[in-house]
């Protein structure tokens, strides 16, 4: 079995991922190698992997390097070992997010979320997702919620479990829409999902609460595009390096009349909770 990894500039990672999923629709593995580099990897026999020229074209000017290595044939089981349950405690609420191969916890005080990451998504363990979930746990449900860039659906499903309704996820990838709908069904919650061009689709959908765990360039594009309805009452933004948080907060505050309510950080990452202007 061969592992073929494409390393790209972090700033363009979301766009490169969209191109790579066209070549590897069964999914890719994602790793954050540094503040500036993201690695996407696919597995298979040599004849089953995308051709190098296709990968180079998909990565475009964001390409850092392409690396290949031989891995054990049981990689699919080893991959599962990377996804462990996480437990969060914020705002007087507790939540446990786990993949389906991990058993449920008997603790009745824990809100249980089951998220199948597939092989292109995560279960919530990344710091950017954890920070979003912590901020979400700290606000009281009151109205509808939209998750922009829904991925596996973990944020949208968490919102639905907490009592937000209606809840909808939007993503530019068909695989994300399918993953969100599948995980919502597994958790017995009502979450809709559909495709939306996060960088060129015009004004973005709005609701009482909008969640956006995306990279800085896409968040700024969303800020400039504006909302298709009234600005959200609450806005949770993540996917930001700590040095990017001030800029993004300022842009949303100035453009949409919001104010920063809370900021959480973990390592090199930060997330923002914005709310009604003063």
From TrEMBL:
This is Unannotated protein. The keyword Methyltransferase applies. One of its GO terms (biological process) is methylation. It comes from freshwater metagenome. InterPro entries: Ribosomal_L11_MeTrfase_PrmA, SAM-dependent_MTases_sf. Keywords: Methyltransferase, Transferase. GO terms for molecular function: protein methyltransferase activity. The lineage of its organism: unclassified sequences, metagenomes, ecological metagenomes. Coiled coil: none annotated. It holds the Pfam family PrmA.
